[in-house]
Amino acid sequence: MNIFRLAGDMTHLASVLVLLLKIHTIKSCAGISLKTQELYAIVFASRYLDIFTDFISLYNTCMKLIFLGSSFSIVWYMRRHKIVRRSYDKDQDTFRHYFLLLPCLLLALLFNEKFTFKEVMWTFSLYLEAVAILPQLVLLQRTRNIDNLTGQYVFLLGAYRGLYILNWIYRYFTESHYVHWIPWISGLIQTLVYADFFYYYFDSWKNNKKLQLPA
């Protein structure tokens, strides 16, 4: 554990709390992509298969439970809650997210550090997480109506991955033989996916104007 890893985890946790705050307090999921939330639920379910078999630390287990529970809770709220689901704009959230699953699985089968079920699924979760935000970004481009909580949620998700890259750089220079190409490359791709959003987010903040993405 180092400061960059801790900051990344806390930023990731903050993104979830912001989204849950919006759903629970405002009773709205307007501007939120159900497709992205479903992809994240698959990411965490496939990544944390070892949650009850390989104990690392209490902190590690708690974080896994939080991300698993929150991701499936958000999907449930958007699909089943009688008030929240009314605010979901399925006509705009039309990205065919299931087309992302097979390529990511094939990549995981071809490029992994060890050909075991858990390792392949863990690698699959990395590839899928790199592109899971795409339906959300496409939805924001279509609606162009980005409220503060939604903008903060997406920004915190991107910032979490950026902090993890700093964590990897730090560990590379402080730990011997620390080389993990698969997480590094997928994490870099994920950060680049956010680049356009970051530009417009900081531009809106600098000029004190409403956040909008170009159509």
From TrEMBL:
The organism's place on the tree of life at top rank: Eukaryota
Pfam families assigned: ER_lumen_recept
Transmembrane segments: 55-77, 98-115, 121-140, 152-170, 182-202
Alphabetical keyword list: Endoplasmic reticulum, ER-Golgi transport, Membrane, Protein transport, Receptor, Signal, Transmembrane, Transmembrane helix, Transport
GO molecular function: ER retention sequence binding
InterPro entries xref list: ER_ret_rcpt (IPR000133)
Subcellular location(s) of the protein: Endoplasmic reticulum membrane
Membrane topology: Multi-pass membrane protein
UniProt main location, coarse: endoplasmic reticulum
Segment forming the signal sequence: 1-31
Gene Ontology process terms (BP): protein retention in ER lumen; protein transport; vesicle-mediated transport
Cellular-component GO terms for this entry: endoplasmic reticulum membrane
UniProt record similarity statement: Belongs to the ERD2 family.
Alphabetical list of PANTHER family matching this protein: ER LUMEN PROTEIN RETAINING RECEPTOR (PTHR10585)
Protein name as annotated: ER lumen protein-retaining receptor
Species of provenance: Herrania umbratica
Record lineage: Eukaryota, Viridiplantae, Streptophyta, Embryophyta, Tracheophyta
Gene name per UniProt: LOC110409232
